[in-house]
Amino acid sequence: MINRTNMILRQAESWRPLAFRADSGTLSRVHFALRRFLDLQTASIWQDLRRELPRVEGAVVDVGCGAQPWRPLFGPAAVYKGIDTADARENFDYEVPDTLYYEGSVWPLADASADFILCTETLEHVPETKPFLAQAARCLTPGGRLLLTVPFAARWHYIPHDYWRFTPSSLHALLTEAGFGDVAVYARGNEVTVACYKAMALLLPLLVPRGKNPLLGMAARLLGLLLSPLLILLAAIGNLSLRGKGGDDCLGYTALARKL
């Protein structure tokens, strides 16, 4: 018998990053800027969304919106609506005002009621991806656009509600089958980004320990502080690497598509 843990028995992560904040204001913006510097996944998503979202016009639906961290990037011509599943609090630690929570697999939206759908780091948490993307196609107006992001080089997270990792080939196939065209998939980061991300994943739990033993937590935090110059160096290199064109080994993918 294999002498390792049967991962099917796992029901929680040993460590989880802090959840996004749903509040606004100067302190929140400072916190989010620090989050982007130390969380390369967040930085890579923000880099793509800040180029796309300010230009969006019309009815916007943010699906699986969580704490709605990307909402401030939309311009005044966008009419924003965030929706999420009714179990978002239980499974993902999010319960945010001004979010429409729903049960089941049918989105609480009328046909052809959205001009733009945003879906960030959500598809990997959907057991049935084809019906989910069919809902996106149903709710978009003809010619409406979908922007979704998915992780690739990322740990198993929100256990056990993390089911998939996608490649550009699978994203193209799924979106085409769902009735989308003009599909484009962009890598977020490259091998250097991934190397920095993985090394930082060893250091961040020291600075933000999540264990129950306070003495061990204090010792971990002290060690993390001693290693913080290395963490900052890795974060700086990782953020610089995001300026490249992306590689075959990357943090994740950003996909853009248009409803036919």
Question: What distinguishing features does this structure have?
Answer:
single chain; 260 residues; alpha/beta; Rossmann fold; 2 domains; 7-stranded mixed beta sheet; 8 helices; 7 strands; 21% strand
Please give a structural write-up.
The chain contains eight helices and seven strands. By secondary structure, it is α/β, with parallel strands linked by helices. It has two domains: 21-189 and 245-259, Vaccinia Virus protein VP39 (Rossmann fold, 3-Layer(aba) Sandwich), CATH 3.40.50; 193-234, no CATH class. It has a seven-stranded mixed β-sheet. Strand 4, helix 4 and strand 5 form a beta-alpha-beta unit.
* Count of alpha and pi helical runs: 8
Estimate the mean pLDDT confidence. 95
Number of strands: 7
CATH architectural type of the largest domain: 3-Layer(aba) Sandwich
Structural class: alpha/beta
Hey, roughly how much beta strand do the residues contain?
Answer: 15-25%
CATH superfamily of the largest domain: Vaccinia Virus protein VP39
Share of helix, binned: 25-40%
* Low-confidence blocks of residues: none
The secondary-structure element order is: HHEEHEEHEHEHHHE
Rg from alpha-carbon coordinates: 19 Å
How would a textbook summarize the main sheet?
7 strands, mixed
Please name the CATH topology of the largest domain: Rossmann fold
CATH class of the largest domain: Alpha Beta
Oligomer: single chain
Shape: globular
- Structural domains: how many: 2
First-residue to last-residue Cα separation: 51 Å
